[in-house]
Amino acid sequence: MLCQRIAALEGEKMDTTNITTIVLAVIIAFIIGGLIGMAFNRQQRTKRLQEKFGPEYERTLKEIGDKRQAEHELEARLDHVKALDIRPLSAADTQRYLNEWRATQAEFVDEPLAALQKADRIIREVMKARGYPVEDFEQRVADISVDYPELVSDYRGLHLIAVKEEDDEVSTEEMRQAMVHGRALFENLVSKDTRTEEIDEKEKI
After folding, report:
1. Tell me, what DSSP letter sits at residue 90?
2. Any idea what DSSP says for residue 88?
3. How far apart are CA 143 and CA 188, in angstroms?
4. Cβ within 8 Å of residue 137, ≥6 positions away
5. What is the residue-level pLDDT of the chain in tens, covering all 205 positions?
6. 91-203 has which fold?
7. Residue 153, class by beta-carbon neighbours within 10 Å (0-12 exposed, 13-18 middle, 19+ buried)?
8. What is the pTM for the complete model shown?
């Protein structure tokens, strides 16, 4: 009887050990699976943001210096623009801005910096008319990086030249390139979701 009792106790002990081992194995498997899932999700998020923002992803990462914070910043930009009421221009506003832009381009020959400053103002006004907040330049850049990621770097360059003083050293070629880049953004802003006439090639700088 005693031997049978001892054998039974040892059997119960082995069963308990086996159950504990199985439970621990399941817990570890869940933890590993969770970590793998998190890593996969982070990888997918990085890929999605890289594809969405292009060079702006790397610029933001370099500026912030931390991948997680940089991606959080880009995600915040997406959420901000998603919450905005972005609308197309009316036909009248579209034509008015097109006429202003043509007049500004014509002024570039004689007053390149003044024309560039006016172009910067027109872009800001078009953004405001479409529903973008425009009070803060950095916010404008952030919003542009969401809808026009391939043009945001050029927009930064245009604005930086536009805010320079008359006696600052900026070559005419630099201003010309800035004007060309600004026009690309302008055309996208006035034509998105609307039917507008194209700026004639002969009128382009």
Report:
1. P
2. P
3. 14
4. 159
5. 545 554 454 555 555 666 777 777 777 766 776 666 665 567 788 999 999 999 999 999 999 999 999 999 999 999 999 999 999 999 999 999 999 999 999 999 999 999 999 999 999 999 999 999 999 999 999 999 999 999 999 999 999 888 876 667 788 898 999 999 999 999 999 985 443 344 444 444 5
6. Four Helix Bundle (Hemerythrin (Met), subunit A) (1.20.120)
7. middle
8. 0.73
